[in-house]
C-alpha cells in the first residue's frame, strides 16, 4: 500500500490552529467519497479540529477553481483542498478540462494568496481512479491522505509569507 | 439515458431569483439547438423565470469568451452558460480553438466575478456530439440540462462570495 | 462550396458605421492574398466603407498579436482581423507558434477591449490551406469571408458592452 | 537556399535609428553562433549601427524571457531578439521548455511594450537545427536573418503605437 | 560525463554577494537528494557563503511555485532554485503537473521580480532521472550543478535590472 517514491514528511504536522476547506466535484461519487473521507480523517489525525474543516461541493471539476476561490475569500480559511476525479472518455472533454483546471488551480493560489491543494485525479480508466482512492486493497494508498498532509504543511510553512508578500 | 457516474445534485436548486444568460455559437445548428433547448427547459423547471433567461449568439466557439464576458458585464446577470460544439476536422483548427476557449472561459470567470458555465462539446465525431445533445435516443442525456443545473448551483452557492472577493 | 455545419447568420450585418483593421502575416503569400481578398470583398459587401478598412502586415504569425494590439490601440478601430497561415513542417515550430498565437489573440481581446478575429489557418498540408482560402474550386469556401462577417457581427453585437465593461 | 513560402518584405527596412538587443542561450554553441552571426550581419546591412546592437547571453532557453525582459527595461532598446536552440531528447524536457518559452516570449511583449522576436528553434534533430542555422549549404537559409528583419520591421511599424497604448 | 552541447559559461561566476534559496519537492528522495547536493556544492564552489544558502521543501512538484514565491518574498533572497523530479506514471498526472509547474515557475519570475531557476526533471523513466542526477557513473552529469551556475549567473547579470524594471 506504500507508494514507491512517496515523499517523506520532513516536519511534524500540526493542524490545530488551521482552518481547511475541502471543495469537491460530485462526478464518480464512490471515488470522491473515499478521497474526501481519507482527507478528512487525516486532517483530524494531524490535529485539525472538526469544526475547522469546511466541506462544500461543485458539480464537476471545471467548477473547482471558482469554488476554491470563493471559499478562500473567507479570511479565516488557511488552505483549500480541491478534489475531483476526471476519467478519459471518448471525446476530448477529459483533456481540455484537465488542462484548464490544472493550470487554474495553480494560478488562483497567487490571486487568493493561499495554498490550493491539487486533489484532481486525471485517470485513463476507472480502475486507476479506484486504486488512487484506496478502494483496491493492497494496490495503492488513498491519495486524499497526501492532500491533507499537503494542506497542513503548505499552510504552516508558507501561509504567512505567501499571504503577505508585497509583490502580490 | 443515464450518465454513468453523473454527479448527483446535493441541494435543492432554486433559480427563481436568478438571471441567466446563454451565449451560443452557431456552427452545427442541430446540435446547438438541442443543447440550448435542453438548457432553457431545465432552467425553467428549476424556477428561473422566462424573462430572466437571456439568449445571444456568436459566430463560432472562439467568440464565446468575448460574448460571455460582454453579457456578464450587465450587473443583473448572475451566471452565463457558454454553449458551443467543436468537431475534429482534418486540420489542427479543432485543437487550438478547443484549448484557447477552454482556458479562457475558465479565466474570465475571475475577470467578471461570475460563474461562466463551460458548455463546449469537443468531439471527435458528429455522432459523439449528437449523443451528448440527446439526439440519439437511449444513448446519452442532453448535456444542456447539466449546464442549466450547474449555472443555478454555482450562482446560488458561490455567486455572492465570488463577486465580492477582495482579492479580485 | 458550402461548409457543412457552417454557422448561419442570425442578424442582418451592417458594417456602415464600423472601422475594421486587417493585420496579416506574409508567409504563404498565395493563401494569404486570397484570404485577405475574400475578407475585404465581404467587408465591402456588408457595408463597411473602403476608407474604413485598414490593412497592415507583420512578417509571420507569431507577430500577429502585437500587430493586432497596436492597430487596436487606435480608438477609431472597432475590430481587428488577424490573418495568418501556418503549415506543419518537420520541426515542432508549427505546434508552438500555433499554440502561442491562438492563446494570445484570445487574450488580447480582453486587454484592448475589442474583438480580434482569429483568422489563423493551422494546416497539416499546403493543400488544406489552399482549400480554406477558396483556391480549390468546389471544395471549400474562402474562410476570409467568415472572418469579415465575424468582425462585423462581434463589433456590432458586443463592441460597446465589451469596451466599457467595468471589470476590465 | 530560398525558403518556400518565405514572407516577402513589404517595406524598405531602415534600422538606422533603432537600438536592438540580442539575448541568446548558450546550449548548442555551433548553431547559436551561426544564428547570432547571421542576425548581426543582417542588422548591420539594414542600417542598424554597430554600437546600437547589444548582445547578452543566458544559460539556456528557459532563461530567455527573463533575459529579454531585463534588456527591454532599458528605455533606449527598441526590440529584443531572443535566440535559442532546443533539440528533442529522451525525456519530456524539450516539450515543457518549448511551451513555456514560446508562450512567455509572446506574453512579455505586452508587459514591456516592445516587440520580442521569437528566435527559438524547436527541432527534433540536430540536423534540423543545423539546416535552419544555414550550416548545411544549399538546404535552408540562416533563420537569424529573418529575425533581424523582423525586429527592424516590428519596431519601425508598431513600436510607437504599441509602447504608448493606453490599454497597457 | 560531459553533456554534449552543454552551454559554456561566458563569465566568471561570483556568488560571494548572493543569497540563494533552494526549494525542493520530496518525491523520489534519492534523485532529489543528489540534485540538491550537487547544487549546494556548486553554489559553495562559486563563492556563495554557506549561511547564504537557504533550503526548504514542499511535498510535491505542484507545490514548487508557491514555495518558490514565498521564499522569494524575502527581500534578501537573490534567486530561487526550484528542484523536483516527475516521472511518467500510468495516469495523466505527470503531464498536467509538468505543464502547470513549467509554466508557473516561468510566470512567477515576473511576479516576484527575481530569477526562479527551473530545476524540474520531467522524465519518462526512473533511469532517466538517475542519470540526470549523476547517479549513473559515466552517463550524464548532475544537473543540480547547472542550476547552481544558472542561479548565480541570472542573479548577477539580470537581477538588478529585472527587479527594478518599471514595467512590472
TrEMBL record, chains A, B, C, D, E:
Output the PANTHER family linked to this UniProt entry. 6,7-DIMETHYL-8-RIBITYLLUMAZINE SYNTHASE, 6,7-DIMETHYL-8-RIBITYLLUMAZINE SYNTHASE DMRL SYNTHASE LUMAZINE SYNTHASE
One GO term in the molecular function aspect is:
6,7-dimethyl-8-ribityllumazine synthase activity
Q: Name one Pfam family in it.
A: DMRL_synthase
Q: Which HAMAP family has this protein been placed in?
A: Lumazine_synth
Q: What is its EC number?
A: 2.5.1.78
Query: Would the keyword Transferase be found if you checked this record's keyword annotation?
Result: yes
Going by the UniProt record, its keywords in alphabetical order are: Riboflavin biosynthesis, Transferase
**Which Gene3D superfamilies does the record associate with it?**
Lumazine/riboflavin synthase (3.40.50.960)
Q: What Gene Ontology terms for biological process does this UniProt record contain?
A: riboflavin biosynthetic process
User: Assembly and partners?
Assistant: Homopentamer.
Q: Which reaction does it catalyse?
A: (2S)-2-hydroxy-3-oxobutyl phosphate + 5-amino-6-(D-ribitylamino)uracil = 6,7-dimethyl-8-(1-D-ribityl)lumazine + phosphate + 2 H2O + H(+)
Spell out the protein name for this chain.
Answer: 6,7-dimethyl-8-ribityllumazine synthase
Q: Which SUPFAM superfamilies match?
A: Lumazine synthase
Q: Name one GO cellular component term.
A: riboflavin synthase complex
From what organism does this protein derive? Answer: Brettanomyces naardenensis
* Family per similarity comment: Belongs to the DMRL synthase family.
Name the job this protein performs. Answer: Catalyzes the formation of 6,7-dimethyl-8-ribityllumazine by condensation of 5-amino-6-(D-ribitylamino)uracil with 3,4-dihydroxy-2-butanone 4-phosphate. This is the penultimate step in the biosynthesis of riboflavin.
Q: In which pathway does it act?
A: Cofactor biosynthesis; riboflavin biosynthesis; riboflavin from 2-hydroxy-3-oxobutyl phosphate and 5-amino-6-(D-ribitylamino)uracil: step 1/2
Enzyme class at the top of the EC tree? transferase
